[in-house]
Structure formats: structure tokens, C-alpha cells
Amino acid sequence: MKLDSKKSKAAVKNSAVKQKKVKAKAANPAKAPKVKKTLNTKKAQKVNNKPKVKGKKKLSTKLILIPVFIVGFVSVISSGLSLKNLSKVNDAASQIVDTSMVGTEMLNDIEMETVNIHTLALSHIISTDLSSMIDIVSEVRNHEEKLKQLLDDYNPYVTLETKRNYRIICENYTSLVKECGNVMAYSAAGKNEEAYKTANGSIAKYTNNIEKAISSMREYVNSVTQEERKSLESTYRASVVTCTFTIAVSIIALLFVVFAVVTMVIKPLLRTQKEINGIIVNIDNKKGDLTQRVTPINNAEVDAVGKGINVFMTKLQAIFKAVVTNSARMERVVDDVRQSVQTSNSSVSDLSALTEELSATMQDISENASVINTNTDNVAKEVELIAEKTDELTGYTRDMKAHAQSMESVARTNMESTDRKVSEILEVLQKAIEDSNSVKQVNSLTNDILNIASQTNLLALNASIEELQLKAVVTINNNDQIETKYCEIGEQVRVVAQTVKDKKFSHWTFNGTPICYSSPYTFTVYGDTTIEAVYVDAGEEVTPQAAMLCSVSYNKSTQTIKYTAKRSVPEGCKIVKHGMILTSKPAWEALYKDNQEAFKLEADRIITKVATTTGLAGNYSVSVKCTKPNIWYAKGYVVYTDKNGEEQTVYSDVVSYEVK
Predict the structure, then answer these.
(1) What would the pLDDT profile of 210-260 be if each residue is shown by its tens digit?
(2) What residues contact 479, with CB distance under 8 A and at least 6 apart?
(3) Which of 121, 407, 471, 630 has the maximum number of C-beta atoms within 10 A of its C-beta?
(4) Residue by residue, what is the 3-state secondary structure of 287-345?
(5) Kindly report the CA angle at 658 between 653 and 660, in degrees rounded to 5?
(6) How many whole angstroms separate alpha carbon 422 and alpha carbon 27?
């Protein structure tokens, strides 16, 4: 192709000028052209950016504890008053029983015995034969002894108010006994007139005095009983008032707690969740507005979640803004390069092939833009995951902030790497334009850009794999439903057997060995574990058996072997002792290698460890410091008495660990 010399020089000059401009822009990529905000954009920001709540003191859900404390305080006071009232009732009842019932009954017996003695004295007078008189004398003596015993028994019930009457009864009793003797003596001597005179005189007088004193004491007892009854009625009314007040306060506090939970927790959470779901739906529909924010809530805990989400949205908005800015800057640089290529094409025909290669490179960059869109969809899914986990409150918010900062760091790194690569491409491209033989270098550098996006995902995958390798695998088979968990060493796991039709739960097995006959079972993870629920026919009887397991692990940093014994003894039994026995390689090979049954308690050359706990189920660990090559052998044991009182001993299998 032939060109006029003047036109060729002018074209080359224009090409050189534009190439200098391209170099200047590539050397200073941070300066991006200003983008004017349209009126619609400003309106959208005014609508989406909701104003912050200022000047209001945020409430805390801890206020709910106030009515709970009030209910507890009132309950304690009410219980104290109830105990006091019960004590009063007990004292009043004891007073009524001791003073009224027992005391009154004894007074009646004393009065009856007095009358019997008087009656028998009269009977002795009218008796005609000697044998009858002798029988009456014996009977009178018996009644006198009985009356004396009754007076002695009543003495503990005498009070200051009844002491005078009790003394009157005792004095008249003494005189009554004496006069009864005189009457029987007169009657035996045939002096019936003197006998009648004494019986109707002195004896009747003493009998009446005793009856009057008893009547006076009975009136006092009745008055005391009435007072105690009034005290019981007063205590009952006080108890009714206390219980009514406690119930009223409890109902009011309960209503306040329900109102506070609904107002301060449930409604704010639902409102925040609705706003987050709205943002997620808009992102899914490609209508997402990253300027939207969660409205602040007048609740400290819920508002902390909203603030964390708003911070994440701000970081995400900044990331996308940087991506858009860099993309626009790249497009402008590409446009300048394209114009330079087009100008150079008018003077150098070989640059047409270079232009085609550059067009292919631009298509690759367009594909990278689609990758960025795909990453945008992934971010939208992460936002949806955040919305589903808002119930984890402040702790999860910190994780989201750390994740956002990590994304920002990766994005910044990618942006810096992209800018650096673009600068290198432009420099090589400029040199290629000048030399017209470096098209292959442009393609090579363009491929470098495509490898940047995969680096971050590869690092995250490696971190996830390393984290899983540090955890123990726990496999749970519950009625043929398999569940796999990845647990930390030392973490506790709880399982509950299912209800199976026409079957009943028998026991749990731990790595194939029966370990627990209770439906709920909690165990500690020390390594890879398989837990399986065993079921039998509904009519089959299950007899729990004692079980003992033993496991071993080694800590290289501390050079320590750790043995752990896991025991399970049926309900109704009693632990005598449990622990572990250990021995080293020399003793094992000399004594127990060919006879492992001899490796037991009280055997030779063993170390016996005894636990201090007495629970029917649990773990016991023993650590052995081993700094030299050796093999240590261990066996767990449990000694217990069964339901019949017989002593039983159960051992685990022998476990060992060799330190090389």
C-alpha cells in the first residue's frame, strides 16, 4: 500500500502524540473522571438512605429481668410468710391438742376416779360379809393408786393459771385417802354411824372440792382453746391475703414480660428481617440498591444486628464502587488504545493484525466482567445467608464484619493486581505498536489477568479442608437414620433414641460396644466415634449390663500418653471404686503377654489409679509422661455392688501406645 510522504509523516506524528497521551493516562490510573450525579440518583439516595435515630436512648432486652426479679422477690417473701404462718398453725394445734384434748381427758379421768373412791367407801359400809369388805378395800387401794398416777401425769400440763387449782386437788386427794381409810375402819368395826357421818361429811367435802377445782381448770382450758382457734383464723386470713397478693403480682409481672418480649424483641426482629428480605429479593431480581440500609431500632441488641448489616452493606457498596470505577477506567484506556491503533493503521498496514488480537483481548475482558457479575450473585446469596442467621445477634455480626473486611482486602488486592497488570499490558502494547511484532506478549499478559480471580477461592478452600482435618468424625445411627457431625476434641454430644412402632429401645453402642441403656445419652468426643441405637421387640425384656471402654491418644508437644476410661453401670447399683491399671513393656512381656486375663487389680508390677468420683456413668483419664521409647498398656476397671448386694468387677479391653 502506497502513501503520500506528507500524509505518512502527519499520521505518524498524530500516532506518536496519542501514544504519549496513552502513556500519561496509564502512568496515573488513580485519576478517574468525575461522574455527575443525575437528579434521579439523588432522589433515590434520599429515599433509600433512611435517617438515623438520634437523641433516643436505646432500650435493652435486659429490662425484662426487672419483673422476673420482682416475681422472685415476692415469691421469697411469700414463702417466708407462709413458713411463719405454718409455724403459728403448728404451735396453735399443738397447744390445742396438748392443753385441750389431752389435759381435758386427764381431768375427766381424775374426776371419775374421785367419784369411784367415794362410791366404794359407801359400798364398804353397806357390805355384810368379810370377803366383800376385803375386796372393796383392795379395789379402793387400786383406785387411789390410779388417781395418784393421774395426778403425777397431769403435772407437766400445769400452768401458772392452773397451779393453784392443781395444788387444791392434790391436798384434797391426800385428805380423801386418809378419810377413806377411816370410813373402812369404822365399817369393819361395826361403827356404821361414824362411817356414814365421815363418808357424807369429810369425804363428800373433799370430793366436791376436787370437782370444783377440776371444773375451774376445765374452764381455763376451754378459754385457751378459744384463743388458739382465733389465732388460727387470723393466720388463715393472713395467708389468704398473702397468696392473693403474690398471685396478683405474678400475673402483672407475667403480662409485662409478655408485652416486653413482643414489643422489644419479636416486633423489632420481624421488622429487621422484613427489611433484609426486601434487600435480598431486590438483589435476586437484579434490582438491588446497595444504598439501602436497615432502619435503626430502639433496642440495643437488635439495633446492633442492624448496624452490623449496615456496615457490611457500606463495605459492599465501596467494593462495587471500586470495581465500577476500575472498569470505567479500563474502558477509557482501551478506547484510547483503539484510537491509537486506528490512527497507526492508516500509516502501517501490519497493525491490522494487532488490532484483531486486541479485539480478542477485549472480549476476554468482557468475559471477566461476566465473572464479576457471577461474584455479585454469590454476594447476594451471602446476604441472604446473613438474613437467615440474624438470630445469632452480636456474635454473628462480628463474623460478618470480619468476612466483609476480608472481601474488601481481597478486592483491593485484586484491584491493585489488575491495575498493575493493565499498566504492564499498556507498556508492552506500546512497545508492540512501535515494534509491530509483540502480539503474542499481549495475549500472554491478558491470560495473567484471568488467573487473579481463582486465587482467593483456592485459599478459602484450603483453609476449610485444614479445619475439617482437625475435627473428629461422629457418626450417629438412630433407627437407620445416619447423621454425621464434625466435632472438636473434648466436645460433648447428646443423642436421644427415637420412638419406633412395635419396637422398644434397648441400648446405645459406642464403637460397637454397649455403653448406655438410657434413651438420652451424653458423651465426650475423644476421636472418630460411631454411636448406634439398638432396638428390640416390644415384648422382649432388656437387662442392663455394666460396660467399660478405654481409649488412648498421644500429645507430641508434651510427650504425654493419655488413657480415657468410659464406664456405665445400671441404675440401682452402687459404685465401690473405679479407675485404671497400667504397666510398661518389660512387665507386660514378662507376665501378661501370653495371659492377658492375669492383668487385673492386685496383680504384680502394675500401677493402680483410683478415681474419686462415684457416678454410675462417666469418664476417667490418666496421663503418662513418656520421654523415652517404650510401650505402655492400660485397662479400665469398675467395681460395684449389684441390686442383690453382690460385688462385681468389670474390665475394659487392653489398649496400648508405643512411643518411638
Answers:
(1) 888 888 888 888 888 888 888 888 888 888 888 888 888 888 888 888 887
(2) 497, 498, 500, 533, 535
(3) 121
(4) CCCCCCCCCCCCEHHHHHHHHHHHHHHHHHHHHHHHHHHHHHHHHHHHHHHHHHHHHHH
(5) 175
(6) 10
